[in-house]
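User: I'm preparing a small set of examples for a lab meeting where we compare how different chains pack in three dimensions. I only have the primary sequence for this one, and I'd like the structure in token form so I can line it up with the others. Please keep the answer compact; I'll paste it straight into my notes.
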Amino acid sequence: MRYESQEQKKILEYLRTISYVRKVIVANESGTLDIFGCYKGLFYAVEVKREGEKATALQLINIRQIQEHGGIALIVTNVEQVKKFFATIA
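Assistant: Understood. Below is the structure token output for the 90-residue chain.
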């Protein structure tokens, strides 16, 4: 099992305790982020990367579009980053 999928599992377990969440199993379109959900009425998307790995150009476009429309989009490498971020949302 790759590190990224192990971290995704931890992130999903955490997000299930605080929000509605879904893992994208098969992305039909390039640039689709890994995880989608809703937290306190806010749409969010999370892309999980290995340490040092960069988001693709299409992922960055999708992240920007989500943010422009009032959603939250994150690129993370571990569950602690997710916990810290969601702790800042009142």
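A couple of notes for your slides: The first helix runs from residue 3 to 18. The first strand starts at residue 20 and ends at 23.

User: Perfect, thanks.
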